[in-house]
Amino acid sequence: EVQLVESGGGLVQPGGSLRVSCAGSGFPFSSSNMNWFRQAPGKEREFVASISWNGIRIGYSDSVKDRFTISRDNAKRTVYLQMNSLKPEDTAVYYCNVVKFWGQGTQVTVSS
Q1: Please, is 89 exposed, middle or buried when counting C-beta atoms within 10 Å of its C-beta (0-12, 13-18, 19+)?
Q2: 51-102: per-residue pLDDT in tens?
Q3: Minimal CA–CA distance to 77: which of 12, 10, 28?
């Protein structure tokens, strides 16, 4: 059974930083491309970042480029999203994704 478990969300002030993690099991993590998506209240789920199985190919949405960094540790079967210079518009539930599978999400709230 494929499982994706996100963690690390929370409340942070504008301009602050946060790192969310996603631990994967039940699939060949080290050969799988991984993605982060987010969904804000009343909005559709949107792509945030992706990383290839070997960490060489990385992509970001324009809205987070130069502020967020995706990385992975295949030995720990974990993918990370480091979020810096956070803005209120980054407030959303952040989801980990591999092919058609999704985690339960972790809430990130950016507010003073």
Answers
A1: exposed
A2: 999 999 999 999 999 999 999 999 999 999 999 999 999 999 999 999 999 9
A3: 28
Longest dimension (CA), the chain: 40
Look up residue 29 and give its two tokens: 């993590």
Under 8 Å between Cβ of 36 and 58: no
* pLDDT recorded at residue 28: 97
Q: 30: helix, coil or strand? A: helix
How far is Cα of residue 85 from the mean position of the Cα atoms in its chain? 16
- Joined together, the tokens standing for residue 44 give 């559709």
Answer whether 36's CB lies under 8 Å from 4's CB. Answer: no
Instruction: Look up tokens 């810096």; give the residue.
Output: 84
Look up residue 78 and give its two tokens.
């974990």
